[in-house]
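Help wanted!
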Amino acid sequence: MDYLPLMPFLVVTGGGLLSLLLMGPRKQTAAAIGRYTFTFGVLLTALLFALRQWFGQSGAFRLNFFGGAIVIDNFSTFFAILVLLCGLVTVLVALPYAHQERMDHPELHSLLLFAISGMLLLGSSKDLLVLFLGLEIMSLAIYALVGLRRHDLKANEATLKYILLGAFSSAFLLYGIALCYGFSGSTQLDRIATVISSLPPGSYPLYLLALSLLLAGLAFKIAAFPFHMWAPDVYEGAASPITGFMAAAVKVAAFAMLLRLALGELITGEFFAVNVIWWLSVLSMFVGNTLALVQQSVKRMLAYSSIAHTGYLLVGLTGVTTQQPDGATAALVYLVAYAITSIGAFACVTYLAQRNEQLLRLEDWAGMARRHPWIASAMTICLLSLIGFPPTVGFFGKYLLFSAAIQSGQLTLALLGILNSILAIWYYLRVVVVMMMKEPVTTGPVAPSEEKIAGKSLPPPGGLRWGAGIGAIYAALFLIWAGIGTFTLGIFPGAVPLFNWAWLSIASLL
Amino acid sequence: MSEHLLAWLIFWPLVAGALLFVLPKSWARTWALLAALGEFGLAIALAGNLQPTPSWQFTERWSWILPLGITFHLASDGISGFLVMTTAALTPLAILATVVAPAGTPGTNHARREFGRAFFFWILAFAGSMIGALLTLDLLVFYVFWELMLLPAFFLVGIWGGEQRVPATVKFALMTLVGSLTMLLAILYIGVRIHDTTGAWSFGYEQALGLSFSRKEEIWLFFAFMAAFAVKIPLFPLHPWLPGAYTAAPTAAVLLMSAVMAKLGVYGLLRFAIPMFPNAAFGFGGLFMALATIGILYGALLALGQGDIKRLIAYSSFSHLGWITLGILAFNLVGVTGAVYQMLSHAVATGALFLLVGMLWERAQSTDIKQFSGLATVAPYLATCFVIVSLASLGLPGLNGFIGEFMILLGAWGRSPWAAGFGAVGVVLGAAYLLFLLQRTMFGPVKLHEEAPGQSAKRPAFADLSWREAIVVLPLVSLTVIMGVWPAPFLERIEPAVRQLLLIVEARRTAMPDSFIAVNNGQPSRRLWDEAHQGSYVWITYR
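Answered by r_m:
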């Protein structure tokens, strides 16, 4: 049996285990840089394997492993590439940040790698138990990552909240899996789908209950409306690079599962496929956007807006069937746009908030463009992409989502989506206006050498923020490039190949 | 290059603007000026080769996002060609009118922030995106450029604007974006309809014209498009962003905003909303005519009451745009042709007025009417230019404002004598506020320096036009005269395109109670005023 397609997963898991053994001394800068190089190298190797898998095949492919429990197809490879890209940028942003904040713990690396390996597993699982395994590997690592700023009360609160609520949601999910096994006699998605299709439509109570519980568990991970309570506190409490990673990669991985369930004919029938997801989508959009309107902290604002983006993504999922998968393709493109944008936005937040994340309130950002013109421009591009402004990829994604919704007859949903985009303009543009147009309140950067955190004086930031800067500018360039839609320069995908790849991924599921 | 002329016209300013960031800072203005002059050369190549035929010219088509049928379908005709020409001609003037000096130097345009590379980048991007919106025939690409054009205006006003710039910018951006997102929904709906009808994705203008909508659909779509266009024009209840944004904007930005950006609203109405939804346009034409007429009168009345020159001209611009909209909504050849001609002459006259106001600001650090008196004695050349463009703006025969205004009046009379009558009152009011302005600022006793409170010693002497300023203003002043005396070369290229457009509208109109016929004493044939090139007007029977 050829295990080469599994290499990304194996490399990342192996790298995570190895980094536990090779922790090295905690305090030394050289060791810290060595650790980062190692993590970066592991992720890059895994990415190269994933790219080789994608480009080594012509057209769609589907390879089953372990009796069909794990499948490597275009869909899973697409998600693997996306998650690994997010991981790479996160490492770039986190290195200088962690050093500057004195949270340069060796655990960061193994936790990050384990979280990514869980995501990779989640993307390629075709069995509910593997799904649960992947979800838990990812979640446990993320819980710990959130609490990495151990001297910060907010981080501790966030971790506790996340673990408690996350445990509940996992229990829901597990119970749902058990019920699925109960009525179908299997945990494999294909078999369950076969059993469901033989049921009289929507009449089997065990199926309804099982699917509700499964959906509740996944909705928690993507922070959809009634299960969104944890998101603002956790996003605010976690260190900014980790928040970016969480906002992007966790949502990507959970949506991978959701899409696989929807296109694997598990989420079927009028009630679930249309009504439940319709309401989840609309309520997430409205709740996220209205609450984001009143936030004063940029990080909290981005957290609430990420709830709203879950809503937009669910627009694509409403009414998706194997006969009409356009919405799924649109959701995939939007997912790429959202992931890169939020990583970029949080990289900018990391850069601009300075040490100990002290400049997070909106009014602190007044005149930021004078002090950091490039990063402020990158942040502006990210925010424009979140608004869905052309020519960024955010516009491309939103356009695909709404036209798919209109095409499947969901005109009201598209209308509500546009209405929400209008709401969102207000709070995103407010950041741009404050950064670009208001006069700075204080002159010059906050004096760095005098602050103390938990009794320790910190070294001045110096040039250590470059990583966040590079990450932010990289993301901003990507956003514009992917929105313009050419492939002539060859390095980055434009909108056209992005759309084609998303379509190929969805096609490999049908 | 000639076969990709339109693509060059769109992308050259964007590319040249991006190059600014690579070049040294001190070259910024020179390079921007050269780039804008290059753009002007391209526009001359376009306008010079524009044939007086109704067909699309310089057509080029390349696919952009192929699987979704989004294509760069570029083409020009007499309507868009001249608007492109106007944009390209005004851009170098806007750049030349901007004085580069360290922030805070007295005697520069709103000098709070230095006019650096970013400023010139946004000016060039503004021109490029507006030209893109004018030349594209794909609805989605049109939307992309339509949205793009907001960004430069947003940053130019918000970063380099004067007092009250932040609230003005936010109001402007929010109102515009709400309108355009509504239009996006309508465009997506049309795309899906094309897909349902033909089986292939497309957002092409011609495919959209091939669709037939139910009455209800058509009304919704028409209003969704109008939401975007009426904010940009602006039509009466949607104008609150205008005075603030125009007053706060730096000279170069307000020049492009008033001269071109506002016209794009009218252009969208003429090119997209009316031909695609003719039944709704005719059905609700009366409503929008009423709004336009209210706008004419309301804008003129507000202009009468202003104590600030820039604000006064902003309101007068609002009033004139109502006049242009009235001409479009007349739906006949003379009215629409007149409206298109008025778009050009309004761009020239209002552009020149805003430039001159910017020069006054540089001299006095204020645009308060009370600060100025007897300028004709102190600065005779400046005052002469001001008087000429003001007279052109109020529609003095022999200058360019008259031709368009007269044709619009004729056209509007054919459709609704009421609207034409009230509009004519607006002309009188327009003459009133401009003449009062001239009387109070240009003539009268010289009191400028003595009576200015406290700072007369610091202020530089009130100079007449410098060479640079003369180069900026004189082309526009001479254009007002040329366009007023000899409109034929413009009209004979505009008219075929307008005729073609009206033919499309007629062909797409289904049976509707025809108010047009009722207006014309129940005569069965639809009549259009036709404009003969010698300047006399003759009746022709259309169809």
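OP: Thanks! One thing I noticed: The interface with chain A takes residues 64-68, 118, 140, 143-144, 147-148, 151, 155, 158-159, 165-166, 169-170, 173-174, 177-178, 181-182, 184-185, 188-189, 191-192, 195 of chain B (CB under 8 Å).
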